[in-house]
Amino acid sequence: MSDHVARVVRQWKSEYSEVDASPMYVLARMMRINMKINKDLSANFAKFGLATGDFDVLATLRRSGEPYALRPTELTKSSMLTSGTMTSRLDKLEKLGLVCRNPNPEDRRALMIHLTDKGRALVEEAAAKHFALEAEMLKVLDPQDREALEGILERWSHRLEEEGAM
Amino acid sequence: MSDHVARVVRQWKSEYSEVDASPMYVLARMMRINMKINKDLSANFAKFGLATGDFDVLATLRRSGEPYALRPTELTKSSMLTSGTMTSRLDKLEKLGLVCRNPNPEDRRALMIHLTDKGRALVEEAAAKHFALEAEMLKVLDPQDREALEGILERWSHRLEEEGAM
DNA sequence: GAGGAATTACTTGATATCAAGATACTTGAC
DNA sequence: GTCAAGTATCTTGATATCAAGTAATTCCTC
Q1: Closest nucleotide relative to residue A82's CA, C1' based
Q2: Chain A residue closest to B59 (CA)?
Q3: Could B30 and A153 be called an inter-chain contact, meaning their C-beta atoms sit closer than 8 Å?
Q4: CB atoms < 10 A from the CB of B106, how many?
């Protein structure tokens, strides 16, 4: 039995024996699993009329607690995106009445993005489904694998953030 | 010490105690690490004038062995993308002289995408750097973590493919 | 064989993203 | 206080992607 990535590595080996393609066992599999996860998660968000990125903004506001307001820069940093991308997301969410832009009294360059009541209700409903779906997805892993994976990813993430890489 | 995802989970817990956000320890960390990896890998491809997806097509052709030719459908399946996306990638690669479209003698609906000599030379150069960079990236993991991760992702990937999910 | 179902590559229109730069504002060095 | 440097948001133009649909061809069932 072999998966897509195993076949790819085998092909490289037979074509190009001087190169070590083994990092792909980790990185290419991660990438493919991640693509699959993202597709499934975004199918759930679509039921609420949201793209993954829209949910991400609303969820970031919601979990920041009262008064459910952050600056665009904070949202941008949290999402690993560029400022232009965040601007267009906010345009869309504002048009849908899920957030509103207010002036920021502390810094006239900045804004405050407020979650509206409608936005809050929607994100809470979507988040409940989202967490349930994530839990479901992890059930294909054996409990000990899931636990080990949690530890490994935690260490990996820490080191990347320590290095300032993220 | 805590990373971005740990802070996010803590926020959810304090705002929304009835929900179990713990799957995010696995899924959100995977997503963020993956985003970081993709950014670094695509910076390497850019040195060769390629986007990640362009490299993916050229590499799939190269490792398929002589005569370095596949049908668009095979490339599409391998990449987890839609056929329209593959069409536009092939347009671009053809314009750059890295692949060429030839009629497929066995099926007049289909084509054969051939890697040109120029395409082959480029992908071999880019691939060498790519593999070196991937190996470098995995050095932040302890050897036992890397080994464990390889096993876990292999099992995960197998199960998803078994289910027909990928 | 004939005819309907499936497959193949492509087209179209919409959206998401980025890099680079513009504009307005704040901060800090002197 | 002044001004250069930095910061915050948005704009612009380019690209990548997708979903849905099209036309030509092949496959399958009878």
Answers
A1: C18
A2: A12
A3: yes
A4: 8
Could you give the angle at which helices B4-15 and A52-63 cross, rounded to 10 degrees? 60
Residues of A in contact with B4 (CB under 8 A): 78, 157, 161, 166
B41/B131 Cα distance (integer angstroms): 10
Q: Minimal CA–CA distance to A150: which of B38, B6, B102?
A: B6
Domain range B49-164, CATH architecture = Orthogonal Bundle (1.10)
Mean pLDDT by 10 residues, chain B (166 residues): 88 86 91 91 89 93 93 93 94 94 90 95 93 94 96 94 76
Please check whether residue A126 is in contact with residue A45, taking contact to mean a CB–CB distance below 8 angstroms.
yes
Task: Give strand pairing partners of A102.
Answer: A112
pLDDT confidence band for A84 (50 / 70 / 90):
very high
Strand C contact with B164 (CB < 7 A): no
Written as one string, the DSSP assignment of A139-160 is GGS-HHHHHHHHHHHHHHHHHH
Give the model's pLDDT for residue A105: 87
> Distance, in angstroms, between B142 CA and closest chain A CA?
9
Predicted TM-score of the model (pTM): 0.91
For residue A16, what is the nearest residue in chain B, using CA coordinates?
B63
CA distance A67 to chain B (A): 12
Q: Is the CB of A83 under 7 A from strand D?
A: yes
How much is the pLDDT for B165? 67
A107 touches strand D (CB under 7 A): yes
Q: In the Cβ-directed half-sphere of A126, how many Cα atoms lie within 13 Å? A: 26
- Per domain, the residue ranges of chain A are 1-47, 49-164
* B151 in Cβ contact with A25 (< 8 Å): no
Residue whose tokens read 């040109």: B116
Instruction: Determine the Cα–Cα distance for residues A98 and B7; give it in Å rounded to an integer.
Output: 24
- How is residue A133 written in tokens? 């779906």
